[in-house]
Write a structure and sequence with these properties.
about 600 residues, alpha+beta, 4-stranded antiparallel sheet, Phosphohistidine_dom_sf
Length: about 600
């Protein structure tokens, strides 16, 4: 363990959680720190991506870390060639995902890359609307292709069609091809994800940096409010919940909603009446596709969508319906946000000369054009694509069980994607030959070895970082999205973790409020949130929007000015402080705090 107060442990200095020895063997070698990569790993600063992976990942689920940072890297480094930034390097350590920004400092290389970036990014910015529509078509194609994938049980004999249609090959080949297609389409989805995301951030960051140079005293939050009040697809799922809540109030059926939000009880209570049947019909219309929405971030196989657990959206609908019945206005304050936005723009623009004002207008227009994608991509990729991907992965797991290879569908997820490919080849070839799979006992024993390892890794929280941080954190993605700033890293390094009665974070959404906190560890804790409590969580997923109709404010451990939590809080007009680092560790449910979303501080009023 490091005794240097200026750095965190290196990977090779840290030990595995008790019971997790041998965890490294579960993941692809290139995701795991090793002796071969020690010099490189020690030279870089790694921080935990608990925004997307809030717990240690099962071996199969590590495909997400591959796909995300493959896509992010290739578009930053090789395709659009961001001048000063390459990709985010990735490691899995003790089951948690860690990433490290890779910058470019050589002036000659920056100039070379800038020439590529200006030409390529310029083409996308100039043609953004049409290219974005084409992007949606590509994503819909990936989702449709995934839906067509099947893993039916292998028959005793190949069907007659193999002979009488002279296909010349066994249907068992379809199993192998479909698995590869599933993996390839998942990787494709994450290539498409970053086709626009880096440029979306780039457009906003260019405007952000212009404002910082033109108005030296402007704060980050004020810049972000200049692009607020934009209608994006990401708010549609919550909009469906609000619409259904409004309809329930109008039809006078609010009292029919069961306290435990049980969908079968609600169906029974509403069926048969004109009002109830009308509401149930609208509910079914909303479910597809808007309830194909993860309650968390959708990066692991064990997360549910709203359609998987209807009690989650039903609770939100009931809360909205009761609020409306009580005379409350639950609409998103779009007009107020737009009025504030326009007032801020007008106030600052008058300090610019004519040429500066023209540049300001152009950059603001670009930022507002690209900004919706920063949120909307979540619907297509993390929710709709991931929903289909995990359902097909579960179907594959059932295929293994039906063939007698695994005892339980959950067993498959203790193998990484390459091991699943090997096991599948074993199964199919053994079936073809007419013998038992050669590796059945081998893999069952390995699964039993790995189960307690995964449990041990998930029983502990991820250290925020490893290795020595740079003197200044300058990577815009780390700062804007993750809230990993120089100040936050210094807080992490401090043995006292800051003053005992204050938490410091990113001022994400303006407003001051005093209230009682409710600490939520995951989406499964959402039902315990009470009206007017301050929601405290490691991070809030985009799908938590309905909770903002209940909470009076939000505090998170991780997240920056452009994280989903920050954006959603601003759009719903809720005070928020994100990226505090230790809120869930230091705050307890029932404590009273004073939050200042303008300053980014949380004062603890009760110990």
């Amino acid at each position: 363990m490091s005794t240097d107060n200026n750095r965190f442990d290196y990977f090779h200095e840290a030990s595995a959680p008790e019971g997790a020895d041998g965890w490294e063997s579960m993941y692809p070698y290139y995701l795991v720190p090793s002796e071969e990569t020690r010099e490189h790993d020690d030279s870089k600063f790694w921080f935990a991506d608990t925004m997307h992976w809030s717990r240690g990942v099962h071996p199969f689920d590590s495909i997400g870390a591959e796909a995300v940072y493959y896509g992010a890297g290739v578009f930053s480094t090789r395709i659009f060639s961001l001048p000063v930034s390459l990709g985010l390097d990735v490691r899995v350590f003790n089951g948690y995902v860690y990433i490290s920004p890779t910058g470019v400092t050589d002036p000659a290389m920056i100039q070379e890359r800038a020439q590529y970036f200006q030409k390529r990014a310029g083409y996308y910015y100039e043609n953004w609307p049409s290219l974005y529509e084409a992007w949606k078509t590509k994503m819909e194609g990936v989702i449709a292709d995934m839906r067509e994938i099947t893993f039916p049980p292998l028959p005793d004999y190949d069907p007659d069609e193999v002979v009488f249609n002279a296909t010349g090959r066994s249907v068992s080949m379809d199993i192998l091809e479909n698995y590869h297609k599933l993996i390839d389409q998942f990787l494709n989805a994450w290539q498409y994800h970053f086709e626009f995301l880096n440029l979306g951030y780039g457009g906003y960051i260019t405007f952000f940096q212009f404002c910082k140079n033109a108005f030296p005293l402007i704060d980050d939050q004020t810049v972000s409010r200049m692009v607020a009040g934009v209608d994006v697809l990401a708010f549609r799922p919550d909009g469906e919940l609000r619409k259904l809540g409004q309809l329930a109030a109008e039809l006078g059926i609010v009292d029919k909603f069961p306290e435990d939000n049980d969908p079968e009880k609600l169906q029974s209570a509403l069926s048969g009446s004109a009002e109830g049947d009308q509401w149930l019909a609208e509910f079914e219309k909303s479910r597809n596709p808007w309830f194909n929405y993860f309650t968390e971030y959708g990066f692991t196989h064990d997360q549910d969508t709203w359609n998987d657990d209807l009690s989650v959206p039903l609770k939100a609908i009931a809360d909205y319906a009761r609020a409306i019945a009580d005379g409350q206005d639950i609409s998103r304050p779009v007009e107020r946000l737009q009025a504030e936005r326009d007032e801020i723009v007008s106030e600052y623009r008058k300090y610019l000369n004519e040429s500066e004002a023209v540049q300001f207008d152009e950059l603001l227009k670009l930022a507002r054009t690209v900004f919706p994608y920063i949120e909307e991509h979540n619907i297509y990729v993390e929710h709709w694509t991931h929903d289909v991907f995990w359902k097909k992965a579960h179907e594959l797991a059932e295929f293994f069980v039906s063939a007698g290879f695994f005892e339980n569908p959950e067993d498959m997820f203790y193998l990484n994607r390459f091991e699943v490919d090997t096991a599948l080849a074993d199964l199919v070839q053994a079936w073809a030959i007419g013998v038992s799979a050669r590796g059945k006992k081998r893999w069952q024993a390995e699964v039993e070895r790995r189960k307690p390892i995964v449990a041990a890794m998930q029983s502990v929280t991820a250290p925020p970082a490893y290795s020595a941080p740079p003197a200044e954190i300058t990577d815009p993605f780390a700062v804007m999205n993750y809230g990993v700033t120089t100040e936050r890293v210094n807080d992490w390094l401090s043995s006292s973790k800051g003053a005992p009665d204050t938490l410091n974070g990113i001022p994400a959404s303006p407003g001051q409020i005093e209230g009682v906190v409710r600490v939520l560890r995951s989406e499964k804790d959402l039902p315990s949130l009470q009206p007017d409590e301050i929601l405290v969580a490691p991070i809030t997923a985009p799908s938590w929007a309905s909770a903002f109709a209940v909470a009076s404010a939000v505090i998170t451990d991780i997240g920056g000015m452009m994280s989903h939590a920050a954006i959603v809080c601003r759009e719903y007009g809720i005070p928020a402080v994100v990226g505090t680092g230790f809120a869930t560790a230091r705050l307890k449910t029932g404590q009273r705090v004073r939050l200042d979303g303008k300053k980014g501080t949380v004062e603890i009023l009760e110990t």
